[in-house]
Each structure stands twice: as structure tokens, then as C-alpha cells.
Amino acid sequence: MEITNVMEYEAIARQKLPKMVFDYYASGAEDQWTLKDNREAFSRILFRPRILIDVSRIDMTTTVLGFKLSMPIMIAPTAMQKMAHPEGEYATARAASAAGTIMTLSSWATSSVEEVASTGPGIRFFQLYVYKDRHVVAQLVRRAERAGFKAIALTVDTPRLGRREADIKNRFTLPPFLTLKNFEGLDLGKMDKADDSGLASYVAGQIDRTLSWKDVKWLQTITTMPILVKGVLTAEDTRLAIQSGAAGIIVSNHGARQLDYVPATISALEEVVKAAQGRVPVFLDGGVRRGTDVFKALALGASGIFIGRPVVFSLAAEGEAGVRKVLQMLRDEFELTMALSGCTSLKEITRNHIVTEADRNR
Ligand code: FNR
């Protein structure tokens, strides 16, 4: 049957993938309250469409950190994509490039920065996890820069791994035929099987829990790439990120995989946008599955959004063609949303085009 929306790929992936892999991709932390709210919070925002505006031409293009994109829809870093499909990150990179948008490569990718660069031209960001061994970090950042990556997305919400109970039950670990390719040769490319989640043990062993704001400054001394701080949910941290030299902020709760009972990202967005005062761009990820969601995020002040799970689910279902289709469906839906709400370019999308629950309670 024909696939008509992004969400439909999840059921196909569930059928195709081993349970351990599907559960790793799909799960949130603990009660998965935030996982549910990441979606539901979008549904509590309604439109105030404007009518009788000439919408015969719609321009969805935008600029992110100076790079021209076909649309404000980008790809978030998701780890270990070769578990979904043999082409893994290669397929994602090609699909993003074909769509004229950015792919963010995970530190924990099953393809290296050099391999992804070899797929051809494209604007790519590199997501960084900071290891205890700073030589490893410095080396990896240099490699990403040399491979042509344009920015670092520094993940700051993972000093320890969130408690994902399915991964514990499944004794999740990276299948032995795969490696965390960026760390191959550094003796950090394999994940041992553990009594609980193999990934949680890996994080406990390797990731630096002491990471703090001074390290955001340190990172700027070892690279010329701009740094996006990924995992901001409050005004306080927005101000600190800007003071620390961040070039942008990603409002993210890690797809509800870290601290449970944090608000949906779309609920936290406006607070961050206000605190940023236009000094740096603010992006959002978490639960974006419809073109209407993209519009709502932009109306609340986001400069763009990133998608996570739709990429791995569509990869599992149809490889590169699946990821292309996800990007195309979101693009088409977003264009239609703009037309039906009377906006012909991104700058015409305003706060007045939506009404939030807070607005309605006022
Ligand atoms: C992630 N995410 C993530 N984030 C990160 O900084 N580094 C990583 O390696 C990963 N890996 C990862 C794997 C999987 C399977 C998921 C689902 C998520 C978080 C990701 O970048 C993003 O924040 C969320 O996925 C966005 O939410 P949605 O679109 O999945 O709802």
C-alpha cells in the first residue's frame, strides 16, 4: 500500500528489524512520558490561517550558518544506522544531499566521517560526544573538519545514558559485524555485551561526565567549525551557551531518550527563543512528523528543525529511497501548510499564525 505520511514507516520498520534494533530506535527513557508529549504538544497548537493571499509561489529556502538550504528541515544525528540498512549513513547522506539539506552525522555512526564525505558533495554537520580521552576528541574533530564537515553539534544532555528499559531487557549491544567507525583503531569502536544495556555501559566507561561550559570554550580552541549546543531546554542555559560562544542552539530532549518528564521540545522552544534575543539561531528536534509541525516550530521562532527516528525507520523500510521520501513528504506537507495559512516565504511565518494552549488560557 502507498505510504502517505512519515509516521507509517515506523510500523514497517517494526516488522523488518530485529526486536533489539527496533526497540533501540523507537524507545524513550523510563515511563516515556516525554516521548508521548513530544508528539502531543504539537497537537495542542492550532493555526490562525490568513486568507486571500496569493500563494501561487511558495519559497521554502533558508540559510543555516551561512549555508543555503532548500528547506528548514534537516537530519538529526542518530547512531548506528547500518543496523537499519546495509547502506546506513551513506544512504542518509545521499538522501540529504539530493534534498538540498543538512545531514548531521553521529559520533556513534557505523560509517566514518571520511566515508560519509566520500559519498559526494553535501553540507554536513558532525555531532560530538566528548570522551574522557581528550586526544581522541581532538583527533576526531580534526578529521571531521578535514573531511569537510561544516559545524559541530555538541551533545550536552548525555553525561550518562538515560534509562531505556527496552535496551536493558534486550541486553542491547552493537551487532558484532558493525563498528562505531569513527573510533575504529582507537580501540573504542566495539561495544561489549553487558548485564544491562551495552550502550549504557559504553557511555559510563568512555564519556566524560565532567563536561561543563568551560569545555565549550575549549572546543573552540581546537576547531574553527561553529558549535551548536544540542540539548538546551531552558532560558538560563541559552544565555550560558551564548556567553560560551555557541553559534546556535538546538532545543532538544534527545528524542525523549535522556531525562524523562522534561517538557516536549515544542513547549520549551519559545522560552529559549526569547532568551536568545536573536543573537544566535535556535533550532528544534523532537517529534517532528508533519509539515504542520515544522510550521509551528518556525512560528514559535525556530530557524529550522531536525528529524531523528523518521530517518532510521524509513532507512529500514526502503534504504536511501525511504529517506528521500521522508524528506519529500515533509517538504510537500510544509509547503501546503504555508499555502493554506497564507505564507509565501519563511519570513512571513509569524507568531500570530498559531495559538498555543498558554495563549488560550490567557
Ligand atoms: C538519537 N539521538 C542522538 N543524538 C545525538 O546527539 N547523538 C546520537 O548518536 C544520537 N543517536 C540517536 C539514536 C536514535 C535511534 C534516536 C531515536 C535518537 C537524538 C537525535 O539526535 C534527536 O535529538 C531525536 O531523535 C529527535 O527526536 P525524533 O525526531 O526522533 O522524535
Quick recap:
The chain is an alpha/beta fold. It contains 14 helices and 12 strands.
Explain how this protein is built.
The model has no long low-confidence stretch (mean pLDDT 97). Helix 10 packs across helix 11 and helix 12 crosses helix 13. Helix 5 links the parallel strand 5 and strand 6. The strands form 3 sheets. The chain has an 8-stranded parallel sheet. 41% of the residues lie in helices and 12% in strands. It is of the alpha/beta class. It is built from 14 helices and 12 strands. The longest helix is centred in the last third of the chain and has 33 residues. It is globular and about 60 Å long. Ligand FNR binds next to helix 13.
Write the layout of secondary structure elements.
Blueprint: H1 8-16, H2 19-26, H3 33-43, E1 46-47, E2 62-64, E3 67-69, E4 73-75, H4 88-99, E5 103-105, H5 113-117, E6 124-128, H6 134-146, E7 151-155, H7 165-169, H8 198-206, H9 213-222, E8 227-232, H10 235-243, E9 248-251, H11 265-276, E10 282-285, H12 291-299, E11 304-307, H13 309-341, E12 354-355, H14 357-361
Parallel strand pairs: 4-11, 5-6, 6-7, 7-8, 8-9, 9-10, 10-11
Antiparallel strand pairs: 1-12, 2-3
Residues 25, 38, 76-79, 106, 108, 127, 155, 230, 252, 254-255, 257, 285-288, 307-309, 312 line the site of ligand FNR.
Fill in the keyword field for this structure:
eight-stranded parallel beta sheet, 41% helix, alpha/beta, two-stranded antiparallel sheet, binds ligand FNR, 362 residues
Order of secondary-structure elements: HHHEEEEHEHEHEHHHEHEHEHEHEH
The helix count comes to 14
Structural class: alpha/beta
Q: Mean pLDDT, as a whole number?
A: 97
Largest pleated sheet:
8 strands, parallel
Tell me how many strands there are: 12
Strand residue content: 5-15%
Uncertain spans, ≥5 residues at pLDDT below 50? Answer: none
